[in-house]
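Subgroup meeting minutes
Present: P.N., E.W., G.H.
Scribe: E.W.

1. P.N. recapped why we're keeping a running log of single-chain structure predictions: easier to compare across weeks, and new members can see raw inputs and outputs side by side.
2. G.H. added today's entry (266 aa).
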Amino acid sequence: MDGKVIVVTSGKGGVGKTTVTASIGAALALQGKRVAVVDMDIGLRNLDVVMGLENRIVFNIVDIIQGKCKLKQAAIKDRRIDNLYLIPASQSHEKNVIKPENMVWLCSKMKKEFDFTLLDCPAGIEQGFKNSIAAADQAIVVCTPEVSSVRDADRVIGLLYARNITPKLIINRIVPKMVESGDMLSHDDIIEVLSIDLVGLVEMDDKVVVSTNTGTPLIMQKDSKAGNAFQRIAMRLDGHPDLPIENPMDQKGFWKRISKKFSRKN
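Output recorded in log:
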């Protein structure tokens, strides 16, 4: 049975899309799946740095498509997690060097090699986006609780539906205190606007910075709230769609109730 190709996209840049891709890929690999994560941002690659693999690049996605190497030659095996591979982007080519038909061809090969192929789509809706969605079976849209991010995500969702791809939503970088004070959109507000299924809520986490700077997978960071969220997202993608979604606001509400209880006693 062929594997799945999932594009991870957003309308707005800077929403944590690359971290999402790397973290879900690592979580799926730790669950025993054979996984490839692919950097689709030609000229501005970052996925290799997030994964700590920047010094091991020999070939890239353009080399595969141009016939300069085999898929297996370009796939860099992660040093910490078995079954996790990176296909890096090229830094020296123009963005239009890859066409949608190239990705259809490449993804047909990757489906036979990997259980999951995650495409880290560049921001925006231009050539990189068109290439990334050309062969995708599923899509994850990442947005943050900001009006501009939600608006851009809405635009991308419409384009995905036009390609008969039904997207799922990850809301990233939630700050419970700001949601509670009304200074940040709640996930209910966002879902009401976007009207798509939610696959995960990810709280703002300082360990993301540590992970990015050290190249250590976020899900291997001890006590990482975001890492735990990505593990559960990976489980939902891997045949457990009914796994409950943990709401970062629930824990805050719990401690708030406890605090009120003790304050009444005093």
